[in-house]
Prior knowledge:
CATH architecture of the largest domain in chain A: Orthogonal Bundle
Strand content of chain B: under 5%
Number of helices of chain B: 7
Number of strands of chain B: 0
Oligomer: heterodimer
Shape of chain B: rod-shaped
Largest sheet of chain A: none
Number of domains of chain A: 2
Order of helices and strands of chain A: HHHHHHHHHH
Radius of gyration of chain A: 18 Å
Largest interface: A-B, 51 and 38 residues
Structural class of chain A: mainly alpha
Strand content of chain A: under 5%
Largest sheet of chain B: none
Number of strands of chain A: 0
CATH superfamily of the largest domain in chain A: RNA polymerase sigma factor, region 2, helix turn helix motif
Helix content of chain A: over 70%
Distance between the termini of chain B: 135 Å
CATH topology of the largest domain in chain A: Rna Polymerase Sigma Factor, Chain: A
Order of helices and strands of chain B: HHHHHHH
Amino acid sequence: MDREVIEKAKNGDIKAFEAIYATYAGFVFNVVFGIVQNRDSAEDVTQQLFIRLYDKLRSFRYGARLKTYIYRMAVNMAINEYKRLRRQRKRLVSMEEVGELHRLADRDAIQDGRDKELAYQLLSRLSPEHRTVIVLREMEGLSYEDIASTLNININTVRSRLSRARQVLMAAFREIKDAR
Amino acid sequence: MRCEEVRRILETDYLDGRQDSIERGQVEEHLKFCRDCRQYFKDLESVSASVSSLKEDPPPFIWENIKKDISSKDTFNFRDFSILWDGFLRGLKQRKKAVVVASLLIFFGLISIGVYTYKEMRYAQVEEYLEEELQFLDVLSDDESFENFLVGEGLFS
């Protein structure tokens, strides 16, 4: 992100802030949606994040990268929202609904990777911690270094979480294949 | 390489394109001859592609809501107020230090005032005493005044 754009946004230029929004909104929305798996929450959290960012931007120091700052806000707010919804029992998929996986499974859809609903339900098998690294890596294409920086963990921890998360996904995926 | 070791690499660096050429060569050599690991990697790619396909654009109304909110705040100089408020809160975080410093300043200030006041009071008392003594010496040096003094004190009739 151009430093001049950030400077203008810091001074209240809404057009400049819109450029920042256009750059990062997709990331924020998809990270929140991937972790929380609730569309209304993803929309609300995305909105809240950027409203909060607009206020915080004045005191933003260039020593910290804006990208990392936004990434961290997105992950933290997503996890908080996930915990809030879990307390309210509004998760899209519970373990009792796992049986639905078989109804949704279609060999071609699995192999083409196009069955979005199946993908969401596979994600629901993951803990928030594992879901976060999968969403950051698979949906947003972040490097291991960027994931480590965003989550404030080291690269080996990124690697082990990805490995474990993919093992869980693969176990669920193969459960469906074997059931057919 | 054993299958378990290969699968750990497939799940991470190999799938994410992070391997150096030597390790990559070793994995690919294993995959040439191991059907199970080949299938495992194929399934990994399917799951990965499936998750990647979930990506979408946020709905346009989100930006409209944000713009409405920040525009209304700017109209009332809310940002300036929030900046002042943030500054005030940051100042409050220093309050412990400020309270201690202020307390020490007040304490030593009061001590100083007390000492000064006491000294002034003592000077006034000493001055008054000396004044009286000087007056008495004046009396002693004058015969008529001394006689009147003795009569006044009942020492001479």
